[in-house]
Design a protein that fits this description.
Jelly Rolls; 10-stranded mixed β-sheet; 22% helix; Immunoglobulin-like; single chain; 6-stranded antiparallel β-sheet
Length: 879
């Protein structure tokens, strides 16, 4: 036997899916894998591909390729067919022998042709007089199978939301299926393996339906109901193959009399307001065979163009974590029942699963959720506005488990009203829900406050990456605001593998941009109040450039750039028409607020967040210049030389216009603010004038010193102020501002007990009261974009080229921090840095995965290039 010299390859992926997906949406998917250890030039990769159609014989093909082809390797065989099942494994061979095979990657292809989607959307036929808060239906069917299947796939979607059961058992682990997309353009269809859940003979499928985003009330200032439609329905297509190769199909329809509907126990459900459940209306066995549904109603077909149905590239929403209670406190008694308050210790998107044991028939148990407490110790519900987050369970006197199905809540604290007897930790659990992405980034330092701040940003991301990137998970908003993710996307791409998640959302951005004529404030777009008529707004509109570039930087996937190129170009071209002759974007958008500028600048009044110190046209021009520069880079990456040259001239024109308009002859900016200098420096708007850049850096440092530890930036400037100070060599000021806990500052939020990033710097005031502004959230990730600087500067880890093919290790110790660790799973494997400072010696340990190289940049020392492997270096270092 040959001796194995290298570990087997690992982490095989198809496209950007994790695990073994059941519905890849392309017939020529790309493959990726990673290596442990050093790979020699003499080695080759052997790949085994096994493919088969359900019920047919498999074929095996072996190919060889070079080890460097391990990231997004083009499909090396004939195109795949709909439903085809594939197993892939790889190993290394060479002069020293073969490794063992990798763990096999198994995946299946979705239905590639819309005419193979055979079902219909079906829902209830009864009259629904209400505009919302309607009694929700159950849908069921029974069917016979001649034998146990060897293959069974359920293709499931809904107009609204759906949760399915098969033979009395929940299907899958997902919630909020099919998720929120621009339903007028696309609707996700999810696939489940039911092979082991079906029996020979009678079987049953049952479906709970919810209003969701499709017809539920969405948004603030009263919101809107029925935006996409006023009828909800389920789409189900069950495909079965038997051992003899024969097949069966069970599809949802309104014409075979096998699909029926009845009102279920969920009497109303709202994503933000909560859900009501009446156990008296339960029908035991409704999702099992041999149930008497003679008094159920027939279903009605709901028209929907199935050409809009597609298979998802983003992961499903699932319970990925669980929070334990820190305290359970009695807060009142009445009528023999007790009210309780629970502190779960962590603010996030979660739901309580309650074990009801002592309730009497007719008892109503109410669960209310909130992020923080008022000074009187009770839930702070005013910031929730319409979204009061109240679930109600009406008991039939029997023991039961209750958890809302079609609502999620953003909270740390919950009150349970109407509970009989004592409430203990055994009576409930809190499940944490977010889209089931793969975590790729980690950080830890010797400063616990810094660690908590980084965790706060991470938790805010989890809380708001629920089907799409939202602004907040608690109040009556929860919209895909384009500005927030524009700023946070680099941080998001460090923490998690967001390629599939954000690429999915960008499809909707491109659709809405084309439909409306500009990138709207949030996507999917529904008109509300002063946001009814979208106009081109800097930062928010720049999402069509900034988000794709952040994903490309993390993944190196040019297909995404190609897909988003038309949308990015449309944005650049649109704004080009709004520029003055000198290249400055000073046209005021024709709507109430104009440009949003440095939104939520801490000097702005609580109820007028747009009143920032930095001129709006300065902010708008700076971000447009940034987008122009990135668009030129995108054209370069796509080898579009003509576009690159054309838009490089535009970028230079805007950059020169910015300098001439916003700097006086002494180098002072017309808006003499932290935000203005931070943008000018970080966006490279003064790079062609070294003296001006140096002056801008000194001026920014002076403004920071004058602020005495208080941050003075809002949305626009916050991600860039610390990078600007770092780039211009002002590390003392950077750490002083970063570590200050004065109000406002990042550490002020930590000092005040925040476990997520707040929307406002002072969402909670120093006396413990909640900010009186009507727009107050304790779970927004935008200000958490500082974590990008934490990872790159405190940890010392950041990419230099797309896909982390080259990355930088450049820790800049300061602020009394004596050690830090940062790690990120790149497309090639985990890159990490671990440093400690002691007695004037800086010890650095760097892990470089195969296929990448690292630039080790330590102040006062020559840069060192590191290749794959583990490296340890010690440097003399003076902070």
């Amino acid at each position: 036997m040959l001796e194995v010299k290298t570990d087997a390859p690992y982490d095989l992926q198809v496209e950007h899916y994790h695990g073994n997906p059941l519905a890849v949406r392309t017939n020529k998917p790309r493959l990726s894998w990673k290596y442990r250890g050093h790979i020699t030039d003499s080695q080759e990769v052997e790949m085994e591909i096994i493919r088969k159609m359900p019920g047919q014989e498999a074929t095996i093909k072996t190919i060889e390729t070079e080890p460097v082809n391990n990231v997004l390797f083009p499909w090396p065989s004939e195109p795949l067919a709909s439903r085809e099942q594939v197993s892939v494994r790889v190993r290394l061979d060479g002069d020293d022998g073969n490794t063992s095979w990798s763990e096999a990657l198994k995946f299946e292809v979705g239905i590639l042709e819309y005419w193979d989607l055979l079902g219909k959307f079906v829902g209830p036929t009864w009259y629904e007089g209400k505009s919302d808060h309607r009694h929700l239906p159950l849908i069921r069917t029974e069917f016979n199978l001649k034998a146990e299947p060897v293959y069974a796939r359920l293709y499931l979607s809904a107009l609204g939301l759906v949760e399915g059961n098969v033979n009395g058992k929940k299907i899958g682990e997902d919630i909020l299926t099919p998720g929120w997309t621009c339903y007028d353009d696309r609707l996700e269809c999810w696939v489940y393996d039911l092979t082991d859940d079906l029996n020979s003979g009678k079987n049953a499928l049952g479906f709970y339906l919810g209003d969701g985003w499709y017809r539920g009330r969405v948004g603030f200032k009263g919101g809107k109901a029925n935006y996409y439609g006023d009828k909800i329905g389920v789409y189900a297509q069950l495909e079965i193959t038997y051992s003899d190769g024969s097949t069966d199909e069970i599809v949802s329809n309104s014409d075979d009399d096998q699909w029926k509907a009845a009102k279920g126990p969920i009497t109303q459900s709202d994503l933000c307001e909560g859900e009501d459940y009446d156990a008296h209306l339960e029908q035991p066995g409704w999702d099992e065979p041999n149930f008497d549904d003679s008094n159920w109603s027939p279903v009605a077909e709901i028209p929907y163009d199935k050409r809009r149905m597609e298979f998802p590239i983003l992961p499903p929403v699932r319970a990925n974590l669980e929070n334990k209670s820190l305290s359970i406190k009695k807060i009142g008694e009445r009528d023999g029942k007790t009210d309780w308050q629970i502190d779960f210790g962590q603010n996030c998107t979660q739901r309580i699963k309650l074990h009801v044991t002592n309730a009497k028939d007719g008892d109503v148990i109410e669960l209310q959720h909130a992020e923080v407490l008022e000074k009187n110790g009770r839930l702070s519900t005013r910031p929730l506005r319409r979204g009061q987050q109240i679930d109600r369970y009406t008991s039939n006197g029997k023991p039961a488990y209750f958890e809302a199905k079609f609502a999620t809540h953003g909270f740390r604290y919950a009150e349970i009203h109407g509970w009989r007897g004592e409430l203990t930790a055994n009576d409930f659990e809190a499940k944490v829900y977010f889209s089931d992405m793969e975590q790729t980034g980690w950080f830890e330092s010797s400063n616990n406050r810094v660690n908590r701040l980084n965790e706060n940003a991470l938790w805010s991301m989890r809380s708001n990456f629920v089907s799409l990137p939202t602004d907040c998970p608690q109040r009556d908003e929860r919209l895909g605001w384009t500005g927030d993710i524009s700023l946070f996307s680099p941080t998001a791409a460090y923490f998690y593998d967001v390629e599939g998640f954000l690429s999915s959302w960008l499809q909707d951005v491109a659709h809405e941009q084309k439909r409306i004529g500009t990138v709207p404030f949030y996507v999917p777009f529904i008109p509300f109040a002063e946001w009814t008529e979208p106009q081109a707004i800097a930062i928010w509109g720049d999402s069509s450039i900034l988000v794709p570039w952040a994903i490309y930087t993390a993944s190196g996937d040019k297909e995404l750039l190609t897909e988003q190129f038309p949308a990015g170009k449309a944005w650049i071209d649109e704004v080009k028409g709004y520029l003055s002759d000198d290249g400055v974007w000073d046209r005021r958008p024709p709507y109430l607020l104009g440009q949003l500028g440095d939104w939520l600048d801490p000097s702005a009044p609580a109820d007028d967040p747009v009143k920032a110190m930095t001129a709006k046209n300065l902010v708008a021009t700076a971000f447009y210049a940034r987008s122009c520069d990135l668009f030129v880079k995108i054209a370069h990456e796509l080898h579009d030389e003509e576009t690159e040259l054309e838009y490089a001239k535009l970028a230079r024109h805007v950059r020169i216009g910015f300098q001439h308009r916003f700097f006086n002859d002494k180098g002072i900016m017309t808006s003499d603010t932290q935000c203005a200098y931070a943008l000018a420096i970080t966006f490279g708007l003064v790079d062609d004038d070294p003296e001006l850049k140096e002056f801008a850096g000194h001026r920014l440092a002076l403004l920071v010193r004058r602020s005495h530890g208080k941050i003075s930036t809002g949305f626009a400037g916050t991600p860039y102020i610390l990078p600007a100070l770092t780039e211009t060599g002002h590390m003392d000021e950077a750490y002083s501002l970063f570590l200050s806990d004065k109000n406002p500052s990042w550490m002020y939020q930590v000092k005040m007990g925040g476990t997520t990033t707040w929307e406002r710097w002072d969402s909670m005031l120093p006396d413990g009261s909640v900010n009186p502004g009507v727009m107050t959230s304790f779970n927004h990730y935008s200000l958490g974009s500082v974590a990008d600087w934490i990872h790159a500067t405190v940890g010392g880890l950041k990419p230099l080229t797309p896909g982390w093919h080259k990355f930088e290790v450049a820790p800049r110790p300061g602020g009394g921090i004596t050690s830090a660790k940062a790690a990120h799973t790149t497309p090639y494997g985990k890159a990490s840095v671990d440093w400690s400072l002691e007695g004037g010696n800086l010890k650095v340990k760097v892990t470089v995965p195969y296929g990448t190289s690292a630039q080790l940049d330590i102040l006062g020392h020559d840069t060192i290039t590191l290749t794959d492997g583990i490296h340890e270096e010690t440097f003399k270092y003076q902070v």
